[in-house]
């Protein structure tokens, strides 16, 4: 893993230098919108809804829409005046019981790794959190914006989880669910069902069957030759765009390792250096012609000077 942030956990007079790693990754299947007939990617242009003209990226500003539908345009100067933080400190505000943190408040998770010289205070904080059954409420600045987070221990590692602000939790404002008169028999059957399905959570018992099915489907199409060759844009040449493209490239590499002929697109790319070589050869010939012309001109000039000297010498002798 690669650290995405470096700073220090600060509580009291203790300072623990740490590195931040993203603890989760999204394996959701991503699809591209493409032209059904040739597989070409679908792209969208930025147009202004008022004048219908295409808008350059440099002319796009941030707009804030009010509740009544009015649009407020915010300039770069306006944005620069907003409060931002660039601190590299994870500041502990207080230690609270674990059961006081509603799981709905928890957002993105990060692993904290200590510097080698800070292992002891890191372990001290980890052991104290576990022994007291508490989480640390902290403030931290990630990407210039200050946010709340908690520190907790998971499998011997301190994990920081950013938190939503309280007003970001929506209320369940649908119709109130009225209490119902439940018989003892109904409650007994419900308890029996729960007991029947009771057990411990084992993450290995669950898998993303949708993602696996998509991978199998794509792999079958690649092996069957159902692959559309799409030219990559220069700005996206280094991006692995989706599962299909990744698998197609893997197939091409496998063919190359077996000595099979590459795809036509790659063959055409190999011809480019020959053109460059021809251009270089033409340049050399042109340069040679210019050099020969210069030498000829120099010889003619020297012959003219010699003739002039001889004529002058004869006049003096006479």
UniProtKB/TrEMBL annotation:
- Enumerate the residue ranges of region (Disordered): 253-318
Q: Which residues form the Ku domain?
A: 52-180
Kindly give the InterPro entries that the UniProt entry links to this protein.
Answer: DNA_bd_Ku70/Ku80, Prok_Ku, SPOC-like_C_dom_sf
Gene3D superfamilies in the record: 2.40.290.10
Record carries keyword DNA repair: yes
Composition-biased stretches, type Basic residues, lie in: 268-297, 307-318
> Which UniProt key words apply to this protein?
DNA damage, DNA recombination, DNA repair, DNA-binding
Q: Which family does it belong to?
A: Belongs to the prokaryotic Ku family.
Known partners and oligomeric status = Homodimer. Interacts with LigD.
Q: What's the stated role of this polypeptide?
A: With LigD forms a non-homologous end joining (NHEJ) DNA repair enzyme, which repairs dsDNA breaks with reduced fidelity. Binds linear dsDNA with 5'- and 3'- overhangs but not closed circular dsDNA nor ssDNA. Recruits and stimulates the ligase activity of LigD.
Q: What is this protein called?
A: Non-homologous end joining protein Ku
Give the organism the record lists: Janibacter terrae
Q: Which gene encodes it?
A: ku
